[in-house]
Design brief:
By secondary structure, the chain is of the alpha+beta class. Helices cover 45% and strands 16% of the residues.
Length: 132
């Protein structure tokens, strides 16, 4: 699958919220955080600090993206790891295959190599030795 399709945001657009450094925001995973900077991601996002750690604040459009987009797309556009997106999904009780992930999986079945793999699997399934 080409990257353009794998990382496509299907339910956006998602825009950087208005904020000011030093303001407090409610992060869905960490509670109240202080916004200290703006990320350098493809979609810039406020970075919150609570204790020693800093990470993007899970609220607003980012929370919406986590709920409906594929993990790969969220990680790519918001500049975080797949592990972080999975942690956010867990906190928001998002199913492992949401609408965005489902669309990416469906798009991958339209690739020519998928047909090759399906033909090989069908041939194995019909092999008399394997069926015996």
């Amino acid at each position: 699958m080409i990257d353009r399709e794998r990382f496509k945001l299907r339910f956006g657009p998602y825009e950087t919220p208005e904020f000011s450094c030093g303001a407090k925001a409610n992060d869905f995973t960490r509670g109240l955080v202080v916004i200290v900077e703006l990320s350098a991601a493809r979609i810039p996002w406020p970075i919150g600090k609570r204790g020693p750690g800093k990470s993007p604040v899970l609220f607003g459009a980012l929370a919406s993206a986590v709920r409906c987009e594929s993990k790969q797309a969220v990680a790519h556009w918001f500049g975080v790891s797949l592990w972080r997106v999975q942690q956010w999904r867990n906190a928001l009780a998002v199913r492992s295959v949401n609408e965005g992930t489902s669309q990416v999986l469906s798009a991958s079945t339209a690739e020519p190599r998928f047909d090759e793999h399906r033909a090989k699997a069908d041939a194995k399934a019909r092999d008399p030795e394997r069926r015996a």
